[in-house]
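Q: My collaborator sent me two sequences in one message, no labels, and asked for predicted structures for both. Can we handle them in order? The first one she listed is below.
A: Yes, handling them in the order given. First sequence, followed by its structure tokens:
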Amino acid sequence: MRYKAVLACFLALSALSTQGRAVQTEERYRLTGGWVVKADMYGTPIYLRLELDQKGEKLTGTSNGDKLEGSVNGSSIYILVKPSSLMKDGEGGMEELKGTVQDGMISGILVWTEADNSTHPTSVQFTATPALLRRIGPPRRYEFTPTVFYRQFSALNKPVLTVSPGDTIHTTTLDARGIDASGARRSLRGNPQTGPFYVATAMPGDTLVVHLKRLRLNRDWAISYDGIVSRGLNSDLAGKVKDGGESVRWHLDLAKGVASPEKPGEHLTHYSVPLHPMLGCIGVPPSSSQPAPDTGDSDVWGGNMDFNEVVQGATVYLPVGTLGALLYLGDGHAAQGDGELNGDALETSMDVEFTVDVIPGKSIPNPRVESPTYMIAMGLGGSLDEALPSATANMAQWLKDEYKLTPSEIAEVLGTAAEYKVTEVADRNAGIILRISKERLQTLTPTAK
């Protein structure tokens, strides 16, 4: 009897020990939550956003929005994603992640199989780390003095400063020709940018929010041209302005708030325009897997949008394409008419103060701007004919998300409240915005956040 009692006690303790080890193992390798995957694709870093839900050994979730399934056995992990989100501009395919969990990190091999080349899968190494959580504590304010300026919206440029959602940055920008507030050249021309600013927690599939708190001109002159870009011309006007394209220097009277040509023609002796400081460029890289666009370009990631309502008090929304968002800004204008018809506005340097935020897990199809009085959806395309429906679709999606409107209800609102403006005709992509007065939407009920 004594032997049997001892044996029973031993078996019970053994079972408890085994159960404890199992619980300990499950807790040790608990994977539920957000993860950032970094894969080295032929020397280019590719990032994936994993959202994992672990129930025992079973894994479910998403990879950049696509559904995944997998399993975990001890420290070994397997994840299958189909179709592939690794390269949204590719032909689709399948991802397999095979690795191990150790010290809070997952590492292993990512196998990417293209749909149209399934016999030659690509295998690359990857690491995955838990997604950063929003910092606890009061927001911080940074004084940042730039020493380097970039002429590409690149995901590969080293961040100049790391900030968190809610933080505010005060900095300066050069003019489009690379000249600073003192008149000194600091960069080659071509819209050199201040940044990139790394925003902690921002991941592909999020939306970056940029509140423009303060825009101030920091010198008393600007440069423009006296030509008109080709998109703004018919054949008759083209012949009349063919000798244009000369530089025009403007005096910025900061006290009176007006700009006027320093050497006006005889009919413009008393001509002046109100100062209206704005940022021509505000953007993020599309993704590290795509070639970096130059800072004269614009697209769904923002960039050189040259929209004259990107002013103090406006909020700009941009889709995040890479880890940390990597925000660039520059190309200050003292004033600009719709379309940037001269090819340049009143180009000048600027003091800029802005606050960043992140909307996690929410992507938008094109940049958006919000003013105190308007919701503004941007459309960009190779022509104005392409830009207009792009703006319309952007606003339709916004109304659906914000107010849960049906397609019929969206059409009724757009048909009675839409206001279109041409924003850009000078660069590769033309721009049109669709805006709706917030007063028109007061009777609608916003979706609960």
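Q: And the one she listed second?
A: Here it is, processed independently of the first:
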Amino acid sequence: MKVIAIDDIPVEERQHVREGVFRIQTILDGDPDSPGNFALMLASLPDTYDSPRHRHNFDQFRYQLKGKFDFASDGKMQPGSIAYFPEGTHYGPQTSNEPSLTLVLQFGGASRSGYLSMQQYEKAMQELSQKGTFARGVYTYYKGDGKKVNQDAFEAVWEQVSGRPLEYPKQRYQRPVFMEPEHFNWIAIDEGVERKLLGVFSELGTRACLYRLQPGGALQLEENSLYFIEQGSGRINGNGYTRHTSIQTLIGEEPRLEAETQTQLLQLGLPKFD
């Protein structure tokens, strides 16, 4: 188990292939050599952000904490919204005209295509910048015969790391899934503990769930999951937690969370490949 306080994570400014400079706190990450590699990040984006319609070969959850995003015909996100972006499924274009703060989880999906680490990503960007340019989510370069080539920026980075063409997984979902947790009902599951099950996705059981605990309430956390404390304070197996603390449970771990003040937390259950 890992318990990470957000104040212990440095803020990094990073140029992104989509557009502009991101301010990111990378809270937790996985094993780059595993199909289940992941990165849990708190991302602050500028009010000029926009991204073209595109897709990935990995899964993604977003939890909107501040600001709004417009994904055209796919849906909109506002504070409190949660969205699941499945591998292989197009979404966007994505735009925003105000600063935002978003909890982002990117992770290898059921196709076992994996997920690039931030180190692999940045190294490939630097290499590609030697022969081309990134602008608004597109990588542009010229072939030896002078022919201009425009390629999706993520696709170009992935191929630079992997040394082979990117083959996208077949779509399990025709569209991303946008959720408004405020419209779900709380269901009591124990004394002082309520739950909103938002969804279970793919054949590997990826899930999103909200919990609310009253002071004195206790919750047995599930294995192979990431938890984000939206509000509240208390203890997890003796470790203290406060607002925006993150928790990772490994397979076989089911620690006990005990609330000292009213607590609300988000569970993102990772796919179980075994």
